[in-house]
Each structure stands twice: as C-alpha cells, then as structure tokens.
Amino acid sequence: QVQLVESGGGLVQAGGSLRLSCTASGRTFSSYAMGWFRQAPGKEREFVAAINWSGSRTEYRDSVKGRFTISRDRVKNTVYLQMNSLKPEDTARYYCTADSKFSTYTSGTYDVGDYAYWGQGTQVTVSS
Q1: pLDDT digits (tens, 9 = 90+) for 1-11
Q2: Phi and psi, residue 88, nearest 5°
C-alpha cells in the first residue's frame, strides 16, 4: 500500500519556523517529482512548492519564495519543506504529493486529480 505521511506541523508564532517532512512508503519515489499543497479553511487548495526527481529543479508559489525551501532525500524517500518567517496567512493544512512528472507542478494549472499520490496532511497554525 502506497502512503505519503506528513509530519512536523504545529503552532508557531509569526516570524517563526517549521520544517515539514513527508515520508513515502509502499514504493520508491526516487524517480518521482514531489510537492506540497496547502488548504486553509474556506479556501481552495493551492500549490506551495515542488521538486523534481533529482532535486535539481524546484518551483514555488510567489508568496513563499525566499521564505520556504523544498528539498528531498531520495535514499530516505522523504521530502522536506523548511518554512521560515512564517506569517498568519500561511496557516493551513499542508499536503504532500507525488507524481511521475515535474511538469504537473509547473503547468500553472493545479488540478487535484493530476497528482498520483496524496498524503493526509499536517496542520500548520501561525499566530499573530
């Protein structure tokens, strides 16, 4: 059974940092692109960041550029999202995804159904 399991969420004050982790099991994702989405209450799910299979290419939404960093450890089958200078508007449930094509994350159209695998999410709450 393929699973993506997120961890690292929590409550943090504005300006603080968190590092999210997503560990895959059930198959190897070393050849897969992986990414993060988030969804705040009452809002649509939105793309946050993605990384290609080798880690040589990354993509971010504009509002997190310079604050968030995505990385991966292909041996550990894990992708990370380092979040610094957090703002209250970053409050959301963060979801890990995986797909065979990095272009799915760079197309500009983020249809939930386009991504092969999804985790259950981890909650990030940033207080002001």
Answers
A1: 789 999 999 99
A2: -55, -30
